[in-house]
């Protein structure tokens, strides 16, 4: 079978697992094109107005796969990727939303990723999913082992790489290899689909590199560092990726190991509007590290982004020059 995978949302986190599992069971995997104007426009036109920008982009990628000769489109229902934490409601209902909104697309196959229910339930779900392609249980187990191995390697690489190299090597971006030395370090925090999709963020990592700034993302921090940052808030944050944003933002603030922090959020994201508020308040209260908050939407213009980044980097340089 030919299975289409949309290059959107948690594609940036879990694509290696999905691809290896599906291919090991004898399928061919086709990925949608990189995000472009046609994909964004189609997504905006065919999804609900209330959806956040990344979900609209997802719709555009699903439509892009329509003409790529795929037999099925893979849309996971991602409920929870770790114990005791959830993802935002958009991930939970994504296959239903797509079925309700889009006619005339290839049939959808779903995998429920839900670690909240415990590992045994997840094992059973993988078996159910694997049986769509083969009745051979041993083959499904082997595919899972191989996919787990490759995913582990991918996550290790993402931690070790610079943001620029991750873009270039893992996501095929046309950016130049990482320089050895930069004048400044910037913490860039945001969801993977906001900071690694070059079209919707207008190549923010490359722009910062061109301004002589090295970029450190939340993916490069350890769980211990993220937990340190997140511990400043009394109540445990139950959204996995929201906690990653909050934890990395407050970790940078604690350690002062970057010259400034940029927080990228998407228009229409409920969880991010809350997290942004908490981060902004804490940065304002301590007043020790500059923070720039950027909200991207379908109307965002490149010239405006460039101006804001340049102004922010100029401010960091001035701060360094006057020694405060
Ligand atoms: S976390 Fe925010 S940006 Fe991501 S899918 Fe949910 S609402 Fe959209």
TrEMBL record:
GO terms for molecular function: kinase activity. It comes from Caldanaerobius fijiensis DSM 17918. Keywords: Kinase, Transferase. Residues 3-221 form the DUF2229 domain. It comes from the Bacteria. InterPro entries: CoA_activase_DUF2229, Dehydratase_Activator_Redct, FldB/FldC_alpha/beta. Pfam families: DUF2229, HGD-D. PANTHER family: BIFUNCTIONAL PROTEIN [INCLUDES 2-HYDROXYACYL-COA DEHYDRATASE (N-TER) AND ITS ACTIVATOR DOMAIN (C_TERM), BIFUNCTIONAL PROTEIN [INCLUDES 2-HYDROXYACYL-COA DEHYDRATASE (N-TER) AND ITS ACTIVATOR DOMAIN (C_TERM)-RELATED. The keyword Kinase applies. This is Predicted nucleotide-binding protein, sugar kinase/HSP70/actin superfamily. Gene3D superfamilies: 3.40.50.11900. The keyword DNA repair does not apply.
């Amino acid at each position: 079978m030919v299975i289409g995978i949309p290059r959107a949302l948690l594609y940036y986190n879990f694509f290696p697992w999905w691809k290896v599992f599906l291919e090991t069971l004898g399928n061919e995997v086709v990925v949608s094109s990189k995000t472009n104007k046609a994909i964004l426009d189609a997504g905006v036109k065919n999804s609900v107005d209330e959806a956040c920008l990344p979900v609209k982009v997802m719709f555009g990628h699903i439509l892009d796969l329509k003409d790529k000769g795929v037999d099925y489109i893979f849309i996971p229902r991602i409920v929870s990727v770790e114990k005791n934490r959830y993802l935002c409601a958009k991930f939970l209902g994504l296959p239903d939303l797509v079925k309700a909104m889009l006619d005339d697309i290839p049939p959808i196959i779903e995998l429920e990723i839900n670690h909240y229910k415990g590992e045994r339930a997840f094992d059973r779900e993988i078996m159910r999913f694997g049986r769509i392609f083969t009745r051979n249980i041993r083959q499904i187990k082997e595919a899972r082992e191989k996919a787990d191995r490759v995913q582990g390697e991918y996550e290790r690489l993402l931690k070790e790489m610079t943001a620029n190299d991750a873009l270039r090597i893992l996501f095929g971006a046309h950016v130049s290899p990482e320089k050895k030395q930069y004048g400044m370090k910037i913490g860039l925090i945001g969801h993977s689909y906001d900071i690694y999709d070059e079209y919707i963020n207008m190549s923010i990592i490359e722009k910062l590199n061109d301004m002589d700034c090295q970029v450190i993302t939340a993916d490069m921090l350890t769980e211990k560092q993220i937990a340190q940052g997140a511990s400043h808030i009394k109540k445990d944050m139950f959204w996995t990726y929201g906690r990653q944003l909050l934890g990395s933002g407050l970790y940078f603030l604690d350690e002062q190991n970057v010259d400034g922090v940029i927080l990228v959020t998407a228009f229409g994201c409920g969880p991010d509007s809350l997290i942004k508020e908490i981060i902004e308040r804490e940065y304002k209260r301590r007043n020790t590290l500059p923070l720039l908050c950027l909200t991207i939407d379908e109307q965002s213009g490149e010239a405006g982004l460039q101006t804001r980044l340049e102004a922010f980097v100029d401010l960091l340089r001035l701060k360094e020059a006057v020694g405060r």
